[in-house]
Amino acid sequence: KVCQAMSAKAASEQALDERRTAKLQVFLSDMLRLGCLRGFKYFTVHMRGKEELVVQIMNEPQSISPTLSPSMSFAGGPGGWPHELPRNQNSLMISARTQRRLSGYGFINVGLPPASPCEREIIQRDELSTVFLVAAYARYLCPYVWVRSNHDRLIRQGGDQAAARDNPLKLRSTTAWMSEDVRVWDVLAELVDICTVPAPINPFALEHAYFEALPLFESVAATGAMLHLLQRVLDGRIHRYDSLVRQDLEILTARHFHDVAEMHAILRLGAEPERPLLTIVASEDDDAYVLPE
Hints:
The chain has 293 residues and is α+β, with helices and mostly antiparallel strands. It has eleven helices and six strands. The strands form two sheets. It has a four-stranded antiparallel sheet, covered by helices on one side. It has a two-stranded parallel sheet with strand order 3-6.
Protein backbone atom coordinates (compact mmCIF):
# COMPACT_ATOMS: atom_id res chain seq x y z
CA LYS A 1 0.00 0.00 0.00
CA VAL A 2 2.85 2.36 0.77
CA CYS A 3 4.39 1.68 -2.64
CA GLN A 4 1.01 2.22 -4.31
CA ALA A 5 0.54 5.54 -2.50
CA MET A 6 4.00 6.69 -3.46
CA SER A 7 3.42 5.66 -7.07
CA ALA A 8 0.08 7.49 -7.17
CA LYS A 9 1.70 10.60 -5.71
CA ALA A 10 4.51 10.50 -8.27
CA ALA A 11 2.00 10.08 -11.11
CA SER A 12 -0.05 13.00 -9.80
CA GLU A 13 3.01 15.24 -9.55
CA GLN A 14 4.08 14.27 -13.06
CA ALA A 15 0.61 15.08 -14.44
CA LEU A 16 0.69 18.44 -12.64
CA ASP A 17 4.10 19.25 -14.09
CA GLU A 18 2.88 18.36 -17.57
CA ARG A 19 -0.13 20.69 -17.20
CA ARG A 20 2.09 23.49 -15.93
CA THR A 21 4.57 22.94 -18.77
CA ALA A 22 1.79 23.14 -21.36
CA LYS A 23 0.38 26.26 -19.74
CA LEU A 24 3.83 27.84 -19.59
CA GLN A 25 4.25 27.28 -23.35
CA VAL A 26 1.06 29.28 -23.95
CA PHE A 27 2.42 32.07 -21.76
CA LEU A 28 5.74 32.04 -23.67
CA SER A 29 3.89 32.26 -27.00
CA ASP A 30 1.93 35.26 -25.73
CA MET A 31 5.18 36.86 -24.52
CA LEU A 32 6.66 36.52 -28.00
CA ARG A 33 3.61 38.10 -29.66
CA LEU A 34 3.62 40.99 -27.20
CA GLY A 35 7.39 41.45 -27.25
CA CYS A 36 7.36 42.17 -30.98
CA LEU A 37 4.92 45.08 -30.67
CA ARG A 38 5.56 48.82 -30.48
CA GLY A 39 3.24 51.78 -30.02
CA PHE A 40 2.00 51.54 -26.43
CA LYS A 41 1.75 54.83 -24.56
CA TYR A 42 2.86 53.79 -21.08
CA PHE A 43 5.40 51.04 -21.71
CA THR A 44 7.79 49.50 -24.21
CA VAL A 45 8.64 45.82 -24.46
CA HIS A 46 11.23 43.62 -26.10
CA MET A 47 12.14 39.96 -25.90
CA ARG A 48 15.48 38.87 -24.48
CA GLY A 49 15.95 35.26 -25.44
CA LYS A 50 12.92 32.99 -25.54
CA GLU A 51 12.03 33.09 -21.83
CA GLU A 52 12.44 36.77 -20.88
CA LEU A 53 10.39 39.88 -21.66
CA VAL A 54 11.94 43.23 -20.68
CA VAL A 55 9.30 45.86 -19.88
CA GLN A 56 10.04 49.57 -19.42
CA ILE A 57 7.12 51.42 -17.81
CA MET A 58 6.68 55.17 -17.46
CA ASN A 59 6.74 56.41 -13.86
CA GLU A 60 4.33 59.21 -14.74
CA PRO A 61 2.02 59.73 -17.75
CA GLN A 62 3.75 61.99 -20.27
CA SER A 63 0.57 63.16 -22.01
CA ILE A 64 -3.02 64.03 -21.21
CA SER A 65 -5.06 60.83 -20.96
CA PRO A 66 -7.72 59.30 -18.68
CA THR A 67 -6.28 58.70 -15.22
CA LEU A 68 -7.66 58.24 -11.75
CA SER A 69 -8.76 61.27 -9.77
CA PRO A 70 -6.32 62.38 -7.03
CA SER A 71 -8.57 60.98 -4.29
CA MET A 72 -8.87 57.60 -6.02
CA SER A 73 -5.16 57.54 -6.78
CA PHE A 74 -4.39 58.10 -3.11
CA ALA A 75 -6.72 55.27 -2.12
CA GLY A 76 -5.31 52.89 -4.69
CA GLY A 77 -4.77 52.15 -8.34
CA PRO A 78 -7.42 50.73 -10.68
CA GLY A 79 -6.25 47.25 -9.75
CA GLY A 80 -6.39 48.03 -6.05
CA TRP A 81 -2.69 48.80 -5.51
CA PRO A 82 -2.08 51.73 -3.13
CA HIS A 83 -0.12 54.51 -4.77
CA GLU A 84 1.89 55.54 -1.75
CA LEU A 85 5.40 54.71 -2.94
CA PRO A 86 7.71 53.22 -1.89
CA ARG A 87 5.82 50.22 -0.53
CA ASN A 88 6.90 47.89 2.22
CA GLN A 89 9.17 45.12 0.96
CA ASN A 90 7.09 42.37 2.60
CA SER A 91 3.95 43.47 0.76
CA LEU A 92 5.49 43.64 -2.71
CA MET A 93 8.21 40.96 -2.74
CA ILE A 94 8.06 37.20 -2.22
CA SER A 95 9.84 36.28 0.99
CA ALA A 96 13.02 34.17 0.93
CA ARG A 97 11.25 31.34 2.76
CA THR A 98 8.40 31.22 0.25
CA GLN A 99 10.86 31.36 -2.63
CA ARG A 100 12.70 28.30 -1.35
CA ARG A 101 9.42 26.42 -1.07
CA LEU A 102 8.26 27.40 -4.58
CA SER A 103 11.57 26.86 -6.35
CA GLY A 104 12.00 23.22 -5.39
CA TYR A 105 15.63 23.99 -4.53
CA GLY A 106 15.08 24.88 -0.89
CA PHE A 107 17.25 21.97 0.20
CA ILE A 108 20.27 23.88 -1.16
CA ASN A 109 18.93 27.25 0.06
CA VAL A 110 18.10 28.57 -3.41
CA GLY A 111 15.03 30.71 -4.00
CA LEU A 112 13.74 32.21 -7.26
CA PRO A 113 16.59 34.26 -8.74
CA PRO A 114 16.41 35.51 -12.36
CA ALA A 115 18.84 34.17 -14.94
CA SER A 116 21.15 37.17 -14.38
CA PRO A 117 21.57 39.23 -11.19
CA CYS A 118 20.31 42.80 -11.19
CA GLU A 119 23.84 44.18 -10.83
CA ARG A 120 24.79 42.61 -14.18
CA GLU A 121 21.91 44.14 -16.11
CA ILE A 122 23.04 46.05 -19.20
CA ILE A 123 19.74 47.81 -19.82
CA GLN A 124 19.61 51.58 -20.14
CA ARG A 125 18.18 53.12 -16.97
CA ASP A 126 16.66 56.55 -16.33
CA GLU A 127 14.59 58.34 -13.71
CA LEU A 128 11.49 58.64 -15.92
CA SER A 129 10.75 54.93 -16.15
CA THR A 130 11.19 51.64 -14.32
CA VAL A 131 12.37 48.42 -15.93
CA PHE A 132 10.88 45.02 -15.09
CA LEU A 133 11.83 41.52 -16.17
CA VAL A 134 8.94 39.15 -16.89
CA ALA A 135 10.27 35.62 -17.25
CA ALA A 136 8.76 32.20 -17.77
CA TYR A 137 11.68 29.90 -16.98
CA ALA A 138 11.16 26.20 -17.60
CA ARG A 139 12.93 25.35 -14.34
CA TYR A 140 10.31 27.23 -12.28
CA LEU A 141 7.24 26.14 -14.31
CA CYS A 142 5.60 29.47 -13.46
CA PRO A 143 6.06 33.10 -14.63
CA TYR A 144 7.64 35.60 -12.25
CA VAL A 145 8.53 39.30 -12.38
CA TRP A 146 11.64 41.08 -11.08
CA VAL A 147 12.36 44.81 -10.76
CA ARG A 148 15.47 45.77 -12.74
CA SER A 149 15.78 49.52 -12.04
CA ASN A 150 14.61 52.22 -9.62
CA HIS A 151 14.04 49.74 -6.79
CA ASP A 152 14.06 52.48 -4.17
CA ARG A 153 11.15 54.27 -5.84
CA LEU A 154 8.91 51.20 -5.57
CA ILE A 155 10.13 49.32 -2.52
CA ARG A 156 11.22 50.33 0.96
CA GLN A 157 13.97 47.78 1.45
CA GLY A 158 15.52 46.54 4.65
CA GLY A 159 18.31 44.14 5.54
CA ASP A 160 20.48 42.90 2.70
CA GLN A 161 19.39 45.29 -0.05
CA ALA A 162 21.69 43.81 -2.69
CA ALA A 163 20.16 40.34 -2.29
CA ALA A 164 16.62 41.71 -2.06
CA ARG A 165 16.94 43.34 -5.47
CA ASP A 166 16.72 39.89 -7.06
CA ASN A 167 13.56 38.86 -5.19
CA PRO A 168 10.54 38.38 -7.48
CA LEU A 169 7.46 40.54 -6.99
CA LYS A 170 4.41 39.29 -5.13
CA LEU A 171 1.77 39.96 -7.82
CA ARG A 172 -1.87 38.93 -7.87
CA SER A 173 -1.55 37.84 -11.50
CA THR A 174 1.45 35.53 -11.11
CA THR A 175 0.11 34.15 -7.81
CA ALA A 176 -3.17 33.19 -9.50
CA TRP A 177 -1.51 31.98 -12.72
CA MET A 178 -1.75 28.26 -11.96
CA SER A 179 -5.40 28.25 -10.91
CA GLU A 180 -6.79 30.94 -13.25
CA ASP A 181 -6.56 31.94 -16.91
CA VAL A 182 -3.89 34.62 -16.41
CA ARG A 183 -2.21 35.91 -19.57
CA VAL A 184 0.91 37.99 -20.00
CA TRP A 185 -1.18 41.14 -20.63
CA ASP A 186 -2.80 40.67 -17.21
CA VAL A 187 0.69 40.80 -15.70
CA LEU A 188 1.52 43.94 -17.73
CA ALA A 189 -1.68 45.66 -16.62
CA GLU A 190 -0.85 44.99 -12.96
CA LEU A 191 2.70 46.32 -13.39
CA VAL A 192 1.39 49.57 -14.90
CA ASP A 193 -1.03 49.87 -11.96
CA ILE A 194 1.85 49.53 -9.53
CA CYS A 195 4.40 51.70 -11.32
CA THR A 196 2.67 54.59 -13.09
CA VAL A 197 1.37 57.44 -10.91
CA PRO A 198 -1.33 58.58 -11.41
CA ALA A 199 -2.45 55.24 -12.75
CA PRO A 200 -3.96 55.31 -16.26
CA ILE A 201 -7.40 53.80 -16.59
CA ASN A 202 -6.26 51.98 -19.73
CA PRO A 203 -2.77 50.51 -19.36
CA PHE A 204 -2.81 49.48 -23.04
CA ALA A 205 -3.50 52.95 -24.44
CA LEU A 206 -1.83 53.47 -27.82
CA GLU A 207 0.45 56.20 -29.11
CA HIS A 208 -1.30 56.69 -32.44
CA ALA A 209 1.38 59.10 -33.66
CA TYR A 210 3.76 56.14 -33.76
CA PHE A 211 1.62 54.32 -36.33
CA GLU A 212 1.05 57.51 -38.34
CA ALA A 213 4.81 57.94 -38.77
CA LEU A 214 5.48 54.40 -40.02
CA PRO A 215 6.21 53.67 -43.70
CA LEU A 216 3.22 52.13 -45.45
CA PHE A 217 4.18 48.45 -45.52
CA GLU A 218 5.41 48.54 -41.93
CA SER A 219 2.21 50.25 -40.83
CA VAL A 220 0.12 47.46 -42.35
CA ALA A 221 2.10 44.84 -40.45
CA ALA A 222 2.28 46.81 -37.17
CA THR A 223 -1.40 47.75 -37.06
CA GLY A 224 -2.46 44.21 -37.95
CA ALA A 225 -0.33 42.71 -35.17
CA MET A 226 -1.55 45.25 -32.62
CA LEU A 227 -5.19 44.68 -33.59
CA HIS A 228 -4.71 40.95 -33.01
CA LEU A 229 -3.21 41.55 -29.55
CA LEU A 230 -5.87 44.03 -28.41
CA GLN A 231 -8.63 41.72 -29.59
CA ARG A 232 -7.14 38.90 -27.53
CA VAL A 233 -7.09 41.20 -24.50
CA LEU A 234 -10.82 41.80 -24.98
CA ASP A 235 -11.57 38.11 -25.58
CA GLY A 236 -10.50 37.20 -22.06
CA ARG A 237 -12.10 38.28 -18.82
CA ILE A 238 -13.94 41.59 -18.36
CA HIS A 239 -11.59 44.50 -17.57
CA ARG A 240 -12.18 48.03 -16.37
CA TYR A 241 -10.48 49.37 -19.53
CA ASP A 242 -12.40 47.38 -22.16
CA SER A 243 -14.34 50.38 -23.52
CA LEU A 244 -11.13 52.38 -23.99
CA VAL A 245 -9.42 49.45 -25.71
CA ARG A 246 -12.39 49.24 -28.09
CA GLN A 247 -11.97 52.92 -28.93
CA ASP A 248 -8.34 52.34 -29.85
CA LEU A 249 -9.38 49.27 -31.82
CA GLU A 250 -11.81 51.32 -33.91
CA ILE A 251 -9.19 53.96 -34.71
CA LEU A 252 -6.50 51.40 -35.49
CA THR A 253 -8.85 49.25 -37.60
CA ALA A 254 -9.70 52.25 -39.78
CA ARG A 255 -6.00 53.01 -40.24
CA HIS A 256 -5.18 49.39 -41.02
CA PHE A 257 -7.78 49.03 -43.77
CA HIS A 258 -6.92 52.44 -45.20
CA ASP A 259 -3.28 51.37 -45.44
CA VAL A 260 -4.21 48.00 -46.93
CA ALA A 261 -6.26 49.75 -49.63
CA GLU A 262 -3.38 52.13 -50.35
CA MET A 263 -0.93 49.23 -50.56
CA HIS A 264 -3.26 47.40 -52.96
CA ALA A 265 -3.50 50.49 -55.16
CA ILE A 266 0.28 50.76 -55.33
CA LEU A 267 1.03 47.07 -55.93
CA ARG A 268 -1.87 46.22 -58.26
CA LEU A 269 -2.78 49.52 -59.91
CA GLY A 270 0.58 51.25 -60.03
CA ALA A 271 -0.53 54.26 -58.01
CA GLU A 272 2.10 56.69 -56.72
CA PRO A 273 2.85 56.21 -52.99
CA GLU A 274 2.15 59.19 -50.76
CA ARG A 275 4.81 58.18 -48.20
CA PRO A 276 7.79 55.82 -47.85
CA LEU A 277 6.94 52.17 -48.26
CA LEU A 278 9.68 50.64 -46.12
CA THR A 279 12.50 51.61 -43.81
CA ILE A 280 15.65 50.33 -45.48
CA VAL A 281 18.52 49.54 -43.14
CA ALA A 282 21.62 49.40 -45.29
CA SER A 283 24.80 47.55 -44.45
CA GLU A 284 28.19 49.23 -44.27
CA ASP A 285 28.98 47.99 -47.77
CA ASP A 286 25.98 49.72 -49.34
CA ASP A 287 26.59 52.94 -51.24
CA ALA A 288 23.29 54.64 -50.48
CA TYR A 289 20.59 54.79 -47.82
CA VAL A 290 17.62 55.72 -49.95
CA LEU A 291 14.01 55.37 -48.93
CA PRO A 292 11.46 55.00 -51.73
CA GLU A 293 9.49 58.22 -52.17
